[in-house]
Amino acid sequence: MNPSTQPNIENALAFASDLIRIPSLSGGERDVAKRLWEEMESLGFEQMRVDEVGNVVGVIPGEGEAPPIMFNCHLDVVAEGEHSEWEYDPFGGEISEGYLHGRGAMDIKGPLALQTHVAASMRGQTKGDLIVAHTVFEECGGWGMQHLMESGTLEPALVIIGEATDGDICIGHRGRAELEIRIMGLASHASVPERAKNPIDLLPNILAGIEEVKKNQAEDPLLGASTVVATNLAVLPESRNVIPDRLDVILDWRILPDMEQDYLVQQVREAVLGQSGTRSEGFEIKISNATETQCAYTGARRKRDTFTPGFMMDPNDPLIRVAASAVGKQRGPGSADIRPWAFATDGGWTNGVFGIPTLGFAPGLEGFAHTNTERLAIEDARWAFSKHPGLVLALQGELAS
Fold first, then answer.
1. The model's pTM
2. Average confidence score pLDDT of the chain
3. In terms of domains, do 135 and 185 share one?
4. Which of 74, 153, 302, 320 to pair with 143, CA 20 to 30 A apart?
5. Do 327 and 265 lie in a common domain?
């Protein structure tokens, strides 16, 4: 393809503003995928395709036989909440006071635009292919990346993720599991409670079981401890004058990379049943991984659990050391800092499940993610844009050595 758009930082920022103006909740990424396709086409990407679940993929071919590197960001964003609580329009894509503002500015439409333009700008400079794969449903468990990896259609030697790192090299994160504790009893009218088996009566025992689980969490020297907390309660039926026959308690469990789902379920089951004792007689207690049916904008549907795997690269891995040296510190001398993210990314799939070396590098402060003050510093974006080519070349050199 002959590019008609010049790949540079100014056009990347304009593209980022365009993307922010397009709402794209998980499952509703169609319009932002269309705009991305147009940009990639005008930048001269080759082997472009949209897969079954809506991921957008393109390639800038290399000039040799070096292993391919893949850039990855995601197309979806979280909901913006009340517009009145934003200082800037969440879908305005406004650049003001040195920042790009709006939902997705740093998570992750700003970095997506930078990665896309960086890849196009490196045509003819790399010895191996540069793959750009921007995925759907990252905010809901990473179905897009899971599908992409399971399809076997791409075989990158390394993945660079554009989640915010503030210019550091990020090498992993805790995963996330969502467990459901369901207690089934017997409903009745509230005027005749003796006819009911009220699952709410077991709630103190359930919470005591959760507290027991909390006290037995594993810890990692870099990632810290796994954490588990109850985040939601629901009863059915919901009528205020009916004793419910069902109580659901949802647990959010931030897990370490080596923690298996079956182990989590077993740990909760043993603690809850142990705390309930004979009080559980006449009730059915079920502990399972929470599931949901996700529907992609392409029409693809899949019932899947909401599990997001964690991962951790060795901070002394030569690829990580090369990356930190190539990037350097934005403010001061020396190599970039190496650390984990506080939140989950698609790297849990690329490295945690499929074993592909994965690191993160992007501008942006993690603290702005999912807030009504989301923003990306233009100075940081320019710096990160300038550092990406050296990062890619250094990593390809290490991969080929």
1. 0.92
2. 97
3. no
4. 320
5. no
Same domain, 329 and 206: no
3-class DSSP string for the chain? CCCCCCCCHHHHHHHHHHHHCCCCECCCCHHHHHHHHHHHHHCCCEEEEECCCCCEEEEECCCCCCCCEEEECECCECCCCCHHHCCCCCCCCCEECCEEECCCCCCCHHHHHHHHHHHHHCCCCCCCCEEEEEECCHHHCCHHHHHHHHHCCCCCCEEEECCCCCCCEECEECEEEEEEEEEECECEECCCHHHCECHHHHHHHHHHHHHHHHCCCCEECCCEECEEEEEEEEEECCCCCEECCEEEEEEEEEECCCCCHHHHHHHHHHHHHHHHHHHHCCCEEEEEECEEEEECCCCCEEEEECCECCEECCCCCHHHHHHHHHHCCCCCCCCCCEECCCCCCCHHHHHHHCCCCEEECCCCCHHHCCCCCCEEEHHHHHHHHHHHHHHHHHHHHHHHC
Residue 188's domain comprises 175-294
In the chain, % of residues over pLDDT 70: 100
* Structural domains of the chain, count: 2
The per-residue pLDDT for 5 is 85
Do 283 and 316 reside in the same domain of the chain?
no
pLDDT tens-digit readout, 81-109: 999 999 999 999 999 999 999 999 999 99
Which positions of the chain have pLDDT values less than 50?
Answer: none
pLDDT tens sequence across 146-168 = 999 999 999 999 999 999 999 99
* pLDDT for residue 327: 98
* CATH number of domain containing 104: 3.40.630.10
